[in-house]
From TrEMBL, chain A:
Function of the molecule: Aux/IAA proteins are short-lived transcriptional factors that function as repressors of early auxin response genes at low auxin concentrations.
Taxonomic path: Eukaryota, Viridiplantae, Streptophyta, Embryophyta, Tracheophyta
Protein name, UniProt field: Auxin-responsive protein
Biased composition (Low complexity): 80-102
Keyword Secreted on entry: no
The entry's keywords: Auxin signaling pathway, Nucleus, Repressor, Transcription, Transcription regulation
UniProtKB/TrEMBL annotation, chain B:
Region (Disordered): 1-23
Residues covered by the COI1 F-box domain: 23-62
Superkingdom of this protein's organism: Eukaryota
Intracellular or extracellular location(s): Nucleus
GO biological process, one term: auxin-activated signaling pathway
Gene Ontology MF terms in the entry: auxin binding
The protein's annotated pathway: Protein modification; protein ubiquitination
Annotated Polar residues bias: 1-10
Organism: Theobroma cacao
GO annotation, cellular component aspect: nucleus
Protein name from the UniProt record: Protein TRANSPORT INHIBITOR RESPONSE 1
SMART domains: LRR_CC
Keywords for this protein: Auxin signaling pathway, Developmental protein, Nucleus, Ubl conjugation pathway
The Transport inhibitor response domain, residue ranges: 81-127
Amino acid sequence: MQGGVVIRVGSGGGSESGSMSTVSREDNMVVSSEDSSYPDESELELGLGLSLGGGFKIQQVSRGGQYARILTAKDFPSVVSADASSSPSPSSSSSSSSSSLSRANVTAGTKRSADSVAAANGSSQVVGWPPIRAYRMNSMVNQAKAVATEGFNSTMENHKNETSMVEKRTIGSYQNSGNAKLRKSLFVKVNMDGIPIGRKVDLNAHESYEKLAKTLEDMFLKNTTSVNPVGSRVREHEVARPSKLLDGSSDFVLTYEDKEGDWMLVGDVPWEMFVSSVKRLRIMRTSEATGLAPRLQERNQRQRSKPI
Amino acid sequence: MESSEVNMSRDSSELDESARGSSSPDLALERVLSLLKSHRDRSSVSLVCKDWYNAERWSRTHVFIGNCYSVSPEIVARRFPKIRSVTLKGKPRFSDFNLVPQNWGADIHPWLVVFAAKYPFLEELRLKRMTISDESLEFLAVSFPNFKALSLLSCDGFSTDGLAIIATHCKNLTELDIQENGIDDKGGSWLSCFPESFTSLEALNFANLTSDINFDALERLVGRCKSMRVLKVNRSISLEQLQRLLVNALQLAELGTGSFSQELTFRQYEELESTLSSSKNIHTLSGLWEAKGLHLPALYPVCTHLTFLSLSYAPLQSGELAKLLAHCPQLRRLWVLDTVEDEGLEAVGSSCPLLEELRVFPADPFDEDIIHGVTEAGFVAVSYGCPRLHYVLYFCRQMTNAAVATIVQNCPDFTHFRLCIMDPGQPDYLTNEPMDEAFGAVVKTCTKLQRLSVSGLLTDLTFEYIGRYAKNLETLSVAFAGSSDWGMQCVLTGCPKLRKLEIRDCPFGNAALLSGLDKYESMRSLWMSACHVTMDGCRQLAREMPRLNVEVMKEDGSDDSEADKVYVYRSIAGPRRDAPPFVLTL
């Protein structure tokens, strides 16, 4: 599967005011064109637009206007949040490994974000919550990495038992070679608009958005010639489009439903965070996706004014 | 051990330093008072009369300062001329969870400067949540020739270079305890800086440093420090190396192992087991990184005498834990990861009847799709088996009111009850009701309760209960709870012994804040973040209570009127003079 795969971030540029749909497409064009000129085609470039802050869930770190890029698994565990604004974690002996775990800690927690978290069912991405010392969190990450790189020191069984405990999804993704079979699977449903029969994909078998996108393309495009569901409303030209399913210019975007029941565009948050909050995926027609954004904005405005 | 604040408010204005009596009754009194260790007793003694006040201040050798900004080093030095040991706490506790920006303060250096002048004979310094730089460590090392004990917990600002300086210069060092700090670990060469002639070390804890150290240097150090009773090494030390250390330190009382997962030959394993069998004095065991069930049996001989076992970095499964605990009948304190699950906790209940303290940490706090971890069942199981339980810290993802009621019925002696249901605002998962009745049961039943952390979906009713029943409560931590100002008001008007109140993300506003006007001077501090308090409310508080320091930190992008983070504390030192720009003192 060739081609730089770009997962479109439709929320780019969405700010406190203004309609999402009119702004987003242009910003996405900017993002896409930059990315497509990137020489290394296997590199996934995801762009976060400006001012994603309070308008969205806590997952979108409020950068105060700073343009942030989500790095791929290749770039992890370099810390993205090293320059986090108002509440950075204390300098740590394992700062390079704190990555997404401490990032969740380090996000500037505003009241609105906390509101939206508290109001919703279940979320662990609030600043300083659960209340565990940054040191301890970093050690757990360190330890998971160490275990993963040890290989098979003792009996298979012991090791399997240990790493299945220690290598939880959010940590285990750091290591990729040879340990995949030790991670537990995380299968989620994937549906594509127009195809009544869905598929399932194991998120833990992928380490990045890029790999996931590739798999999904394989699933939903390569096989379409053999898939001819009864009553399918799929028009041929939509699925016949080669390879660039999730490219900015495609008619489809990749979205997911998170634990709180909201539909989000895939690609905003670090891979680990995404994996820990995704319930299912949907390859959505673009026309519907731009409709998604205003709904998101509405919901967040509601939440901002919602008393706890 | 909890210590009360030094009651400083009477000292400076009334005190005449030279008015130390030379008549025998005073000296005798001093001699007697020098035997008093408890700070609360000393505070009480100092209030009896002026003579006793003087006798007490001249006989005190250890001062505990729970909030470094409540008093200035000059005031401390003026009142207590003979201090040899200082314990200082700095930042608000929520700084542990990244709620306090860097460079907030709590710098030890100004204290060291005063101490160098007034307490040249200083021997011990124990810091928690303070900032200490390598320069300060150097200053410490050269200013106090008698310096013996340094303990740093949750501190930041220094690197291993500072440790190297301490090791090099502190010829009388007996204790070096470096725990869970934001330390810049540049490498392990600091440990090699202890001179070959140095033999006085009794306690060495570098468990939380990550770099490799020179094992030969460590082996020699341990070998020649015959009085060493505490040794907690870091993960770079293998099992084989551990055995070599232990064989020369059979007098150890507290052991923190390194990595517990090295592949051992049968002979190495036997050697380890044999050495551990000879370590008959070990009562505290920790470390055990990556401990594998395979090697745990080597610990069984040690387990017989163990009173404190920390497995908080060893993700054991229930079966492994059960096997281990079967050998630990004397256990009083146990720290585990939630990988042991409810089944593991059942084993706790059945194997450790003397257990007094249990802490269960989450191995993977951010995994929402969790199908493991502990539930209410595990906690209940422990409560049935361990009636002496009085300290618990429990991270879980589900809880019920009924379970907590059962737990406190089984264990009515709780002094510290810290329950963290990890989803903010989560109700009783069976009944879908708020967790009010759970904490109601806790405060009604556990009359000795000193510290409480609440979680889950909570209405004002919880705080009504707390205010009405928690008469010994000193520390309360609240997050994502309450319905209105009334909740916080109940606590402020109801809990006579309240000293520390920390609140985040609750719907408490100015009315609640101001309802505590009469209370805050009797407390150490109040923290409120992401609540509904405004700048005006804070200004009013500051206006009406001039002896309180009211500090506000604002977040980027928040409303001008919102007071995002509020920190209020009593102080006789006046407003901070070292506040960074983002701390507004009102």
